[in-house]
Amino acid sequence: MNFTEELLHELEKNSSIENTIPMENYMKNNFKFLGIKTESRRTILKNVLLKHYTEVQENYRKLALELYASKFREVHQCAIDLVLRFIKKDFKREDKFFLESLLIQNSWWDSVDTIAKYGIGGYLKVFPDEKFSLIEKFSNSDNMWLNRTAIIFQLGFKKETDFELLKAECLKNSNSNEFFIQKAMGWALRDYGATNPQAVLQFVNENNFKPLTVKEALRKIT
Known about the structure:
It is an enzyme of class 3 (hydrolase). This protein is mostly helical. The chain has a domain at 1-90: Alpha Horseshoe (Leucine-rich Repeat Variant), CATH 1.25.10. Helix content is 69%, strand content 0%. It is built from 13 helices and no strands. The longest helix has 18 residues, at 109-126.
């Protein structure tokens, strides 16, 4: 068996009907689950990867897209784990298209947030000249998950955060009624607030954000 075949075989072999329903309910029934918890899933992936390391290292982008064709969320999560393991030392300029394809397929907060922070965030640290064009594209998209990515991709940037860009994204979305956008703005502001609390407090107080955004942004400041 090749990597994909063996991984799918091992995941299915370790499926648990008992865990399936609560996991699907937690994700609002947007995806089918095999019922494999995170620690077990990562152990399975690690063991299969060790047997097919060279194959995966040389083809992880292609393999991730193959895995994304599955209906099971654990398989999507394995794909993301693979990508982030290898791409952090292997970013290529054209990866902006690859990462976007992952963001808009099988989209939900768990996949989008991880890819936004470690994928897009990591990519833009390597290719900072791509930042404004890529984030403008995401920000102006009709895809809400790309909009969310434009807001949260700087999570963990600390002093390297482009606060002017973050403020612009928050102001642009300040009237949004979308839960995931309001939450994203609050989260991104709270994250930067750990580095510059006064700047975040002043920005929030001077603008008319929705209650959820304000609550999330100031949770650790006031």
